Structures are given as C-alpha cells and as structure tokens.
Amino acid sequence: MYEKLTAFPEDFLWGGATAANQLEGAYLEGGKGLTTVDLIPIGDHRLNIALGNLDSYKPKEGEFYPSHEAIDFYHRYKEDIALFAEMGFKCFRLSIAWARIFPNGDDAEPNDAGLKFYDDVFDELLKHNIEPVVTICHFDVPVHLVEIYGGWKNRKMIGFFEKYAKTLFIRYKGKVKYWMTFNEINMLLHLPYIGAGIVLQEGEDKQQVLYQAAHHELIASGLAVKACHEIIPGAQIGCMLAAGTVYPYSPNPEDVWKAMEEDRNSFFFIDIQSKGAYPGYTKRFFRENGIQIEMKPEDADILMQNTVDFIGFSYYASRCTSTDPEILKNSTEGNVFGSVKNPYLQVSEWGWGIDPKGLRITCNQLHDRYGKPLFIVENGLGATDVLLENDTVDDDYRIKYLNSHFAEMAEAIQDGVEILGYTSWGPIDLVSAGSGEMKKRYGYIYVDRNNDGTGSLRRVRKSSFHWYKDVIANNGAQYF
C-alpha cells in the first residue's frame, strides 16, 4: 500500500548560508592577511580579475573593494546570530577565512586571534542551539600563496591546505560536526582567480593549467576528508557543487548530448570526490585535448580511500543548451554559467531562470548518480529590495520563489532523496559574489548599505523573515 510521507525529517537542518568574504568585513583586523576576494573591486575590472586575466596582489587606488567592510559581521555577529535564532535556525553555514588563520597561507604557526574569533562565533551559535556548517575554503586564497606560488597551479598548495584544515579540525572538533572542503569547486574552470587564486600568464595552456589546479584541489580535498575522519570521529564532511541540471533545448540528439557534456564539466569534480577516481569521459577529454595531469603514485589511493560523506550543492537555476548557432544567440545569465533562454521559464531581475521543478530534478539527478545524502547549501532570489517608511521590506516575490522551491524539495524527499538540510543563500543581505553589489539582495534581514559603501549597516526584518520563521517552526509541514 502506498504510504505518503507527511513531513520533512525530524532532524532536518533549516538555516541560511554565507561566506566570510561577503559578510565579515574587518579585512585586515585581528592579524588577518589579504585574500584573493579582498582584491576584487566592484566595477569595470571585476570580471577580468575574477577570470584570472589581470593580476591583483594589493589594493589599487581609485578602486572600491566591497569585502573590506562588507556588512561588518566581524563586529556584529552576536546581533546577527540572535536574529537567526529568532527565525528558529537549526544550522548556519559559514566559511572560515583562510587568511584569518594563516595570514600568508604558509605561516609556521596559526594566528591565535583568528582562531579565537571563530571560537567565539561557534560558541554564540551553539548557545542558540544552531549547528555550525563550515566551509573550509570559500573563494578566498591567501594572496601571498598566489603571488609566491601561483595559487593552486602549484602542488605545494596541497600541503598548505592540509595543514590549515587539520588546524581547524583540532581546534573546533568539539564545536563543528558538518564540514565542506571547497565551495562550488567547479567554479575553478569558470572564474580561476576566485576559484583557485590563478592568474593566467600569456602563453599558458589554459586548459592544462586549470585541470592541473583542479587535480591539486581534489587531492587536498581528499586529504582533508581523511584528516576530518581521523580527528573528529562522527563528523560529516562533504564536497560542494555549483549545480543546476542542463536541459537540451530540443529533442535533437545533438542537443541532448551537448547538455550531458555540459553537466559532466561540473560532475567530473564530484564524481572524483564521491566515487574516488577520474571518470572515463574525463580521461577521454584529456587524451583528445592533450592534457597531461602530473600525479604522484599515492594520488589514486588518496582519492579512492577518502570519499565525501555527503554532496553539498547550490541551486539557483537550471540551464539550457543547444547546438543551433541561431538559438545560442538568445542567451541569459545564471550564476556565472551562460544559458540559452528557456521559453518556459520566467527570469529574475538579474536574468536568472526561475525553475522550482529544476531543483527537484537536480536533487534526483545527484541522488541517482551518487547515492549519498544531499545538503542544499545555497538557493535564493537576488532582488532590489526597497526599505519602506514603516521600516519593513515587502518581499513577497522572494516568499513566492522560496515557497515554490520548498514544495519541490518536499517532492524530492517523497521521491526517496535523502536531504540533510537546506540553507538559503544570504539569510542576511551581503555583498554579491558575482557583481560586488549590495543592491542584489537575498536576505530575510535587510542591511542598510549601498553599492558605494555608504549606509548605517542597520538590520531590519523583511516580510520573508516572519514567513521563514513559520516554515521552520512547522518543519515545512505545509509542503506535505
């Protein structure tokens, strides 16, 4: 007899997700060193630096760097965590700024002031019964490692990262149970400076450089998984994918194959982190493109013996592709990845396709492929919110977006997909990773800050704040 599920799992982790470089600010306080994201300005040069086409080793006059102050979580974390607790958060995803712990990345000893800051943040979260979910590296490589070693081009980065990860596990083993190694690891291929601290030099073979760097990150991830399991028995450590299934524009087999290939460009990373070996399609791609990955004899065992416990992923939009040059002209945006405009979808203010069903499809696709628990660690709607005279923000459009995605998440659970939790992106307004803007807001909490850095930084509850509070209090029962 068919038995319909009636609720999200009792221990489902509702919460929100952030990154150190987008909310902390205090970019050189407490002994912190410079990171790559500290050197990506808002404005004309942002994309070229993020792509690795321009070097950026120190702040330049005349540029504005949004991450330097961000929303000042560094000084306001108690206030912000109290607001998360008021919403009923079960967990809070945050990242640790590598350069707060090792200012240069290759330091002999960690920076105690940086370690203490995260101790204090974790203690505050745990005081409110909020489980920390920690990303070890979220797009912020210490700049010293880029300037001296070339970032993740260099195999020495593996040792620096392993030392950093072990330092975190030892220090926070009594406070953090959920970890992820690299945020959106597949972004390395699309935004090399953000994803891996890579500045591409004239004459370099871009594909060779990027896939060699990917190998280094994958080995480092495997060694972090090994260390986590050894140092914190019972902890769970996952990978993290910028996800969103790719649809063929038509049933033309060529379009279907191209969609599969575009999916595989990202799945390759997670196939290795979850299954423990390079897939055959990647080996063929390397052969046909003259890519030769330098590996050490122990690398294969590191990958095979240290696979992740769960698959973390971001989902903002599905994508669509075609082999027809005319159709390809009609493209739209979507979390860095370009996409043919899907005629069946509405788009956000920033041109991203709004596809709740795509979340269910992506969940099933990842579950079928890996057979491991999933964790939806980013999802949300960026919009230009307006603070009204009555000191609120009527963001019903955000509620509508999230409501439709929660309904499809519930359907995925009915399908048999195991989902550990859901952390919406930017539960409090923060700096956009893509554009550096503040006006592209995701939060349930409005922050009075503008693109040029002006504003009081005052926090204000939006309509969605109260709505999400009710969803969590009911454990999403309305969706079953």
UniProtKB/TrEMBL annotation:
Keywords: Glycosidase, Hydrolase. GO terms for cellular component: cytosol. GO terms for biological process: carbohydrate catabolic process. Transmembrane segments: none annotated. InterPro entries: GH (IPR017853), GH_1_N_CS (IPR033132), Glyco_hydro_1 (IPR001360), Glyco_hydro_1_AS (IPR018120). The keyword Ion transport does not apply. One of its GO terms (molecular function) is beta-glucosidase activity. PROSITE patterns: GLYCOSYL_HYDROL_F1_1, GLYCOSYL_HYDROL_F1_2. The active site is at E378 (nucleophile). The keyword Hydrolase applies. Pfam families: Glyco_hydro_1. It comes from the Bacteria. Belongs to the glycosyl hydrolase 1 family. This is Amygdalase.
